[in-house]
Amino acid sequence: MAAPAAAARQIPIVCPGHSRPLAEVSYCPETPDGTFLISGCHAKTPMIRNGSTGDWIGTFVGHKGAVWGVALDDTGLLAATASADFSARLWDAVTGNQVHEFVHKHIVKTVHFAADRSKLATAGHEGILRIFDTASPGSPPTEITVFPGGEETPKVSRVISKARWGKDPNTVLTGSADGFVRVWDVRSGEKIRKVQVAGAVMDLEMSWDKKIATVAAGDTVHFFDTGGKRFMAGGSDLWVRVLDFDTGAELECLKGHHGPVRCLRYAPDGKTYATGSEDGTIRLWQSNAPSAAAGAAAGTSGADGTAAR
């Protein structure tokens, strides 16, 4: 791809602190105390920050391997992390204390809270979607085997990279290395829908209003349902691009990272967005999107940068 035309340079807020490449960044909705941003990296130190200023608040200590997935509940009071140490962990996001360790049998890649924070979804290299009760974290989880024994899928393709609660509070979407997005009814364990995309799923995100699912796979970004106005993508060329949802036209092209851009998310109000890179930093950028569009446009985006280039 040719270098983009010169444009007015935006100077982002740079958030150092991570010692290795970023794996995921995630916001919680606006709370009475503000908006918070949680991040995970290839080291074992997930961090929480002020989502508006980028100021460091704290580090969650306990993992013994890379942290691949992070999440905050809608109140900003609970945090969850997924790690290469074969565990997912539940944290008190105010004190930083560990609430519970969910032991798995292989690398955990993704965690996500239900909207009412009563349940936590986890998944990863086992190819199993698990639903834990956060009020009783020691109870056995509901388990859904995404790749049953009779399905001839190589183990390398059974990795579930992302799990996200859907618009229906009883559904969870999974994206996996075999190039499929699946929708599950967590009450029955039944598969509701299966959609193939262009390559291994590297990121899957729901818009803040739950109307749009954005899926990054291969070198393509897919959208399921409509209503957004813009989305963003990044990748190995170090650029962060904001594109028009309807036409695909490039609206902004920003450079500041010194390594490939691996994770991106819009803030709930749509006024800023966060990008995480292999350079070990998070950058907070200003968005030109009107705040009125935040529910659909700003919240929609978050296609992982690895898929865009």
TrEMBL record:
Keywords: mRNA processing, mRNA splicing, Repeat, WD repeat. One of its GO terms (molecular function) is RNA binding. Coiled coil: none annotated. One of its GO terms (cellular component) is SMN complex. It holds the Pfam family WD40. WD repeats lie at residues 60-101, 160-194, 254-286. PROSITE patterns: WD_REPEATS_1, WD_REPEATS_2, WD_REPEATS_REGION. GO terms for biological process: spliceosomal snRNP assembly. The keyword Repeat applies. Transmembrane segments: none annotated. Belongs to the WD repeat STRAP family. This is Serine-threonine kinase receptor-associated protein.
